[in-house]
Structures are given as structure tokens and as C-alpha cells.
Specification:
The complex is a heterodimer of chains A (397) and B (138). Chain A is an alpha/beta fold and 397 residues long. Chain A has 13 helices and 15 strands. In chain A, helix 1 packs antiparallel against helix 8 and helix 9 packs parallel to helix 12. The chains are: A alpha/beta (397), B alpha+beta (138).
């Protein structure tokens, strides 16, 4: 879909590393350039026309995000990306409200940014991390979550779509369960928000994090959405200009209201404006269509690779555009280097999900991750290269 | 160098590398290498006696280039005096980084004289590891 919107696709490249980052449509690039070329100004500080125009565009992005994920305007915080958002939740809210012995449920399919902050917090205040086992398809189910919940469980933290297996977790049911049990529900939306409708309120989410660059937007900008009453009781990690009402020599100070108190210093203004344009672009395209299209392409890919007998696939069943595999006996990086010879971009490695090896028994995989601008031709080129994999070492050495 | 010959040496060393597998022995120096730009993750151990490298062993997961380079490096260094080893490492690193180097010192390691830019880190892994272990001596 909409390949013509992406200048980079005019080059002879098969881009299948969308789980890492996505290509940018021209409208988003133009919108950001316009800020630099026509209305550069800082926000919330200037009394001149340029600043007024910039303020208006900048503030309006919160409204666009609000509509996109269904939350309140004041629940939207600009961050640098999912990693920062998740760290804000752990060190701004959880550090203040959890105590020794409280249990947090994670699982081994989570990205580093939803594991390491918790490990650090556990080191600091003695919370207990429990890993919910994945099922036989390496997917996370509500049933398995239920089995791990105790009276001490205070938080369930998970990716809506995991970044290697690509299983879509049933956040609506999990959110309902969390609400009934009075458990905080923290959702990493980095791999889901770009691909499908995520409804913050309807899924009873307490915190939702996502990144601009994985959804056709700029790098360096992401979002944390938090329930307002939680945000009011959350500490900012960064303090500085723009987020305080006053501070005095005697050490007294007062911070601004939510969400401004979390946004110290000059933000990435062009990126915020670019993100707004990106979300408008995705809404026009129809966010509901994207996931369906990607799943169809993955099915097509699976059908085509059936005949390749030395391919080990780890996530045939997962309902997203992500395929994790290895060529039997070939190191993942060698496969990625081989595919690069055909201008095919994929990712090899552990994908920052370093605990998944305990579940799937292998440290490194090759990951194909599809987005809406990929087409059957991309898949055909990939399949052709994979079919010829007997030649792999002739090609790469 | 003939491309088929080059490929044959690399693949032989990849498929059946020298001294793969670690042993329990506290008299060895040990290190682990993984670089930011590459997913190779190898453990090394090295025994030095009388200023001479007596043994190097390794294990872990790595690509064809770093595994084969490790194997060839091990074969090239065992039995050599430390001063000589330092010279080989320096010249090897210079070769990989496209600087001036002495071809005569490198023997079979010359198979990496035309490495693609995105494989440089892979090829450098064994030399970085041995360097790190030699640092521990200082």
C-alpha cells in the first residue's frame, strides 16, 4: 500500500526491518522541514508570530495522539521514545509506590527496555520480578498470567506485540483482569501502536508507551500515555525549564501540572510536529487495515517458504507481520549478510530480547518485519534468495 | 589471492575451527568479546609461559568470518613470543583497517586482506580478545 509516498522505496531496496525502524513518507519529512525553513521558534516562550504558529502546531499534536489512542488530552506526555517512556514509569512512578516484596510480572519475550529498568528497581528497593512462562508457540496467554498472580502482584508489564515472536497479546482481557485484581497494567506499544488500533481506555491500560520512528515518524520522539490520577502522583525524572512554576533560595519549588511537569527543557519540536503528521497519515490510511494487510503478507511468505526444508521458523502462528527464523546450521548474522547481497534489509541477533533464548533455545534469529508499504514482490525477492541458500557461503565469503 | 582458495581456507576453519571448547584451568587468562555492532559472542582463554603463548582456546556463537578468523589466529599465535604476537596483532589490525602493514608477518591471516567494510568487526574479534588478555599482564 502507498509505496509512492516513500522516497526511499524508489531505490532498489527490499526493506523488511520495520520492527527496528520504519521508512518515512514525504509528507512527514516536508512537515518537519517546514518547521526548520519557515517557522523555527522555541515553544511556550516567544511573543512573536513565529512562536505562536509553532506553539499551535506543537500543542495540537497532543490532541492528535489523544484521538489516535483514545485517552485524555492531559494524559499525553512527549518523550524521546518507548525506552524513555518505560523508564519514566519504572523510576518515576513505580519507585515511589512499590515496596520490598511487591511482585511484578514480566515474561521472557520482553525487550530490554521492559526488563532492565525492573531489574535495576529490584536491586534498589527489593521488588520481586516473576517471569510468566510462554506457551508452546512462545506466546503469552492470560491463562499463564493468571497462574502467576499472587496477593503480592502489583504490576503486569508487557509488550502488546512482542518484538521477536510477534504474538499479539490480548490486552483487552488482560486489562480487564488487572482492573478486577487491582493490578497496575503497563503496556509497551512499540510494536503494536504502528500497526493496529490500540484503545487506551477500552483496554484499561494504566501506562502506554510507544515510539514515533517505528510508525513512519521521526526518531527521538515517543509518547507516554498515563492515567491522569497516576501521573499526578508520578515524579519527573528530569527537572529544569518549562516544567516549574517557581523555585526559591530556601529550596521551595512548585512544578507545573500534568503533563507539562514531565517535559523539562526544549523538546524536539520538529519531531513532535512530525509525529503529529505521521499519526494523521496513518489515520487517513486506516490503522485497522494495516494489521490485516501485514498478516496476509506473512501468510503469503509462509506459504512460499514451505518448500525450503532447512528453514527453522520460530513463530509460524503469531498473528502479526513478524517472522523469526534461522537457516539450519547458519549463524543468523551470516544469513543477514547474505540477504544484504540482494539488497534485502533484515535484522539478525537477539533483538534486545536477551532472555528469549531460555524459551526458544537459540540466542540469535533472523527477523523479517513487515509494514504496510511492503508488497508481494518484496516477499518474492526474499523467498528467491532463501531458496538459493545452498550458495550462502559462496556469496558471503 | 585466488577467490576459491580464500573461500576454502575460511570455510575449513569455520566448519572445523582449531581449539574450540573451553577447559577448566585457572592458569589461563580469560576474556569475553562482543562488540556493539555485531552479534558475535565469544569466550577466550589463553595460557602464557616463559613469555610465550602456549595455548589459546575459545567457544561461543559467532559468524563465519569471526569463527574462522579466530581459528586461524589461534594457529598463528601458539608458540610465539609475546613481542612477536603484538607485532602480528598490530599488522593484522592495520590490514583489516586498510592501513599499511607487513604482509610477510601474517601468513594465512592474509585471507582477510579484502574484507568487506561491514565484516571488519567480525574479523577483528580474535585480535581484540588476545589484546585484552595481554593487557591483563601489564
Amino acid at each position: 500500500m502507498n509505496r509512492e509516498d516513500f522516497p526511499l522505496l524508489k531505490k532498489d531496496i527490499v526493506y523488511l526491518d520495520n520492527g527496528a525502524t520504519t521508512l518515512k513518507p514525504k509528507v512527514v519529512i516536508d512537515k518537519m522541514n517546514k518547521y526548520y525553513l519557515e517557522h523555527t521558534a522555541n515553544i511556550h516562550r516567544g511573543d512573536y508570530d513565529l512562536a505562536t504558529k509553532t506553539n499551535e502546531l506543537y500543542d495540537n499534536v497532543r490532541e492528535i495522539v489523544r484521538e489516535f489512542v483514545n485517552c485524555d488530552y492531559h494524559e499525553v506526555i512527549y518523550t524521546s521514545g518507548t525506552t524513555m517512556s518505560l523508564n519514566m514509569v519504572v523510576f518515576g512512578y513505580m519507585r515511589k509506590h512499590l515496596k520490598k516484596g511487591d511482585e511484578v510480572l514480566l515474561n521472557k519475550g520482553e525487550h530490554a527496555s521492559n526488563v532492565l529498568p525492573w531489574i535495576k528497581l529490584s536491586e534498589e528497593i527489593g521488588i520481586v520480578i516473576k517471569y510468566v512462562p510462554l506457551d508452546k508457540n512462545y506466546e503469552l496467554t492470560l491463562d499463564n498470567i493468571r497462574k502467576c498472580v499472587t496477593k503480592k502482584t502489583k504490576v503486569i508489564s508487557l509488550a502488546h506485540v512482542s518484538n521477536v515472536i510477534g504474538d499479539v497479546r490480548d490486552i483487552k482481557s488482560i486489562g480487564k483482569f488487572c482492573k478486577e485484581k487491582n493490578i497496575l497494567f503497563n503496556v509497551d506499544g512499540a510494536q503494536s501502536v504502528p500497526h493496529m488500533k490500540v484503545d487506551f481506555k477500552d483496554s484499561n491500560i494504566d501506562f502506554l508507551s510507544f515510539s514515533g520512528h517505528k510508525m513512519c515518524g521521526p526518531t527521538g520522539i515517543g509518547i507516554l500515555v498515563g492515567r491522569k490520577e497516576l501521573l499526578e502522583d508520578m515524579d519527573p525524572i528530569f527537572l529544569g525549564g518549562g516544567m516549574n512554576n517557581y523555585f526559591e533560595e530556601d529550596g521551595s519549588y512548585e512544578l507545573k501540572e500534568v503533563p507539562t511537569k514531565f517535559e523539562a527543557g526544549t523538546p524536539p519540536i520538529a519531531e513532535v510536529i512530525g509525529l503529529g503528521e505521521t499519526i494523521k497519515y496513518l489515520m487517513n490510511l486506516g490503522i485497522d487495515k494495516i494489521h490485516k494487510y501485514e498478516v496476509e503478507l506473512k501468510k503469503y511468505l509462509l506459504e512460499q517458504v514451505k518448500a525450503i526444508d532447512n528453514l527453522i521458523i520460530y513463530n509460524k502462528n503469531s498473528n502479526s507481520g513478524i517472522l523469526a527464523f534461522n537457516i539450519d546450521g547458519v549463524f543468523a548474522q551470516d544469513t543477514a549478510v547474505y540477504l544484504n547481497h540482494y539488497n534485502i534489509a533484515v535484522r539478525a541477533g537477539n533483538h534486545c530480547t536477551k532472555l528469549l533464548k531460555d524459551e526458544i533455545g537459540v540466542k540469535n534469529t533472523v527477523r523479517v518485519s513487515i509494514y504496510f508499504y511492503n508488497n508481494k514482490e518484496d516477499i518474492d525477492i526474499l523467498v528467491k534468495a532463501l531458496k538459493n541458500n545452498k550458495d550462502i557461503f559462496k556469496v558471503i565469503i | 589471492m585466488d577467490e576459491n582458495f580464500r573461500r576454502e581456507i575460511i570455510l575449513d576453519n569455520y566448519n572445523d575451527p582449531m581449539n574450540r571448547g573451553l577447559i577448566e584451568d585457572d592458569s589461563y587468562l580469560k576474556t569475553r568479546t562482543n562488540s556493539e555492532s555485531c552479534i558475535d559472542d565469544l569466550n577466550f582463554m589463553m595460557k602464557i609461559e616463559d613469555d610465550t603463548i602456549k595455548d589459546i582456546r575459545f567457544d561461543g556463537e559467532a559468524c563465519a568470518i569471526s569463527t574462522s578468523a579466530t581459528s586461524i589466529m589461534i594457529r598463528s599465535l601458539i608458540g610465539k613470543k609475546i613481542d612477536e604476537v603484538r607485532k602480528i596483532l598490530l599488522n593484522y589490525q592495520n590490514m583489516i583497517n586498510e592501513k599499511e602493514y607487513d604482509k610477510e608477518l601474517l601468513g594465512e591471516l592474509n585471507v582477510y586482506d579484502n574484507i568487506q567494510p561491514n565484516r571488519k568487526n567480525c574479523a577483528l574479534i580474535p585480535s581484540v580478545a588476545v589484546d585484552k588478555m595481554l593487557e591483563e599482564l601489564k
